[in-house]
Write a structure and sequence with these properties.
The structure holds 2 protein chains of 2 kinds. Chain A has 6 helices and 9 strands; from the N terminus they run αααααββββββαβββ. Chain A is an alpha+beta fold. Chain A folds into 2 domains: about 5-60, no CATH class; about 80-250, Sandwich (Immunoglobulin-like). In chain A, strands 1, 2, 3, 4, 5, 6, 7, 8 and 9 form a 9-stranded antiparallel sheet that branches. In chain A, a hairpin with a 6-residue loop joins strand 1 and strand 2 (about 155-160). In chain A, helix 1 packs across helix 3 (about 40-60). The radius of gyration of chain A is 30 Å and the shape is elongated. Chain B has 2 domains: about 1-110, RNA polymerase sigma factor, region 2, helix turn helix motif (Rna Polymerase Sigma Factor, Chain: A); about 125-180, Arc Repressor Mutant, subunit A (Orthogonal Bundle). Chain B is about 75% helix and about 0% strand. Chain B has helices at about 5-15, 20-40, 45-60, 70-90, 100-105, 110-120, 125-130, 135-145, 150-155, 160-180. The chains are: A alpha+beta, B mainly alpha. At the A-B interface, helix 1, helix 2, helix 3 and helix 4 of A face helix 2, helix 3, helix 4, helix 6 and helix 7 of B.
């Protein structure tokens, strides 16, 4: 008797297929079966049938055990990035974050948050109450905020919008994420779609010079946010990853 | 319980990168697959890791589900079992990969084969019961505990070749019973 397939008895094919499906073959036997699978539909079918039988055995005999709830979140985070990504889609959440960040900004401004900020004149007088609801401001207005870490990202930034329209973002906590991009966005008002401003560099200070039409949208009450994105930035033009830091601009 | 066509639809949607379908499939099947990971690995932490990796595989391979010609539960259980066995035998060669079976589908996937297997499956408990108890346990040991012939031979105190003959005969009896 030879090993040529056409000489093998049906029982031999069945037993071999079952052994293969069970993982009982050694490496060379296994490689031999795999080499035959493409050419021999009968063998491939026998393997598939045994896989179905053994799976049925497991389905019948192994009791289900509910896994801990955190596993689903862990799997989805592995596949889709951190869970807060979906927050971007929800206007209501933006409104909530906006209120939160307004409160934080008011506190932060009162405490003088920019230890190494370039023009020192930007540090407000303690006790000064920023006018948060003044809406759009003339281009010459100085705007500033502190971007607070969201969801434990550890990333914090100081932001100033200079009279000439330049936006300076300086990391004061955290750093770049290896293998990922940190993208800056302007949200002109609650519920408005985020407008991409650019990617933060690896250095602490990044300066953006927004186009005039974007510059015109800066004003007190507008939000500046940083999102976690794939290298090169969001492929969609809208945030796709988690919100890392967020702040509401106030007029100086 | 989610039935076969529901699961097939979910897998098809996952192949199109539908995250909601993925969540629904996880909800419907994770307890079963976690039970299998636990049974194979006998360690909760390892089973938790394995389960995560199994669902990552399911997400990435959903587009290849159809060509295997399997029912959804056969596919899901086989992915989970083979992955858990590979974890168990961390140094050994990987277990039969379902993708090896792609050619099964290429010339015509034989949906009847999986339907036949599915109907046989309902009787598998009874057919295992027709085998002598230790031989049925040897089959379970190979599938659910990843036992090799050498380990099975040691467990049952028989020479290696005897073990092989034994198990092969048991498998053929099982097949014969199922196709009755």
């Amino acid at each position: 008797m030879t090993d040529r397939p056409e000489d093998q008895m049906p029982d031999e094919i069945e037993a071999l297929a079952a052994e293969y499906a069970l993982g009982l073959l050694d490496a060379s036997e296994r490689a031999a079966v795999e080499a035959r699978l493409r050419a021999e539909p009968a063998l491939a079918r026998a393997v598939a049938d045994w896989q179905a039988r053994f799976a049925a055995m497991a389905e019948a005999e192994v009791a289900p055990v509910t896994p801990p709830a955190r596993l689903q979140a862990a799997v989805e985070a592995r596949l889709f990035g951190p869970a807060p990504a979906r927050l971007w889609d929800r206007v209501a959440v933006w409104r909530g974050l906006s209120a939160l960040s307004t409160a934080v900004a008011a506190v932060a401004v009162g405490v003088a948050i920019l230890p190494d900020s370039r023009p020192p004149a930007l540090v407000p007088t303690p006790g000064q109450v920023p006018d948060l609801d003044s809406g759009a401001n003339p281009p010459g207005t100085i705007l500033l905020t502190h971007l607070v870490p969201i969801e434990g990202s550890g990333l914090g930034l100081a932001a100033t919008r200079d009279p000439d329209g330049r936006l300076q973002l300086r990391r004061v906590a955290g750093g770049p994420t290896p293998g990922r991009a940190q993208q800056a966005w302007l949200i002109p008002g609650a519920g408005a779609a985020p407008i991409p401003l650019g990617l933060l560099g690896d250095e602490p200070l990044t300066v953006f010079e927004p186009a005039p039409e974007v510059s015109a949208l800066f004003g007190a009450g507008a939000l500046v946010a940083i999102s976690d994105e794939p290298p090169g930035g969001s492929p969609t033009g809208q945030p796709t990853g988690a919100i890392l830091a967020l702040g509401t601009l106030v007029a100086l | 319980m989610t039935d076969r066509s529901d699961l097939e639809q979910l897998i098809a949607r996952i192949a199109m990168r539908d995250r909601a379908a993925f969540s629904a499939l996880y909800a419907a099947t994770s307890a079963k697959l976690f039970g299998i990971c636990l049974r194979v690995l006998r360690d909760r932490a390892k089973a938790e890791d394995a389960l995560q990796e199994v669902y990552v595989k399911i997400w990435h391979r959903a587009d290849r589900y159809r060509v295997t010609g399997h029912s959804p539960m056969t596919w899901l259980i086989t992915v989970a079992r083979n992955h858990a066995i590979d974890r168990l035998r961390a140094e050994g060669p990987p277990t039969a990969d379902l993708d090896q079976l792609a050619p099964l589908a290429a010339p015509g996937p034989s949906p009847e084969a999986s339907a036949i297997a599915a109907s046989e499956a309902r009787r598998i408990g009874a057919c295992l019961g027709e085998l002598p108890a230790d031989r049925a346990d040897a089959v379970r040991g190979a599938y659910l505990e990843g036992r090799s012939y050498a380990e099975l031979a040691e467990r049952y105190g028989v020479p290696l070749n005897t073990m092989k003959t034994w198990l092969r005969r048991s498998l053929l009896s099982l097949k014969e019973c199922l196709s009755r």
